[in-house]
Amino acid sequence: MNARGFTLLEILIAMAIFTMIGLAAYSVLTTTTDSDAISSQRVAKLEALQRAMLYLERDILQAVPRAVRINGDANGKVISGGQDQLQSEADGLALVRAGWQNPQLMLPRSTLQAVGYRLQEGTLQRLYSNHPDSVIGSEPKVKVLLQDIEDFRVQFLPNAGFERELKWQDDYVGAVLPRAIAIEFDSVDFGRIRREFLLASEGGDPNAVN
Question: Which of 103, 111, 158, 178 makes a 20 to 30 Å CA pair with 83?
Answer without folding.
Answer: 111
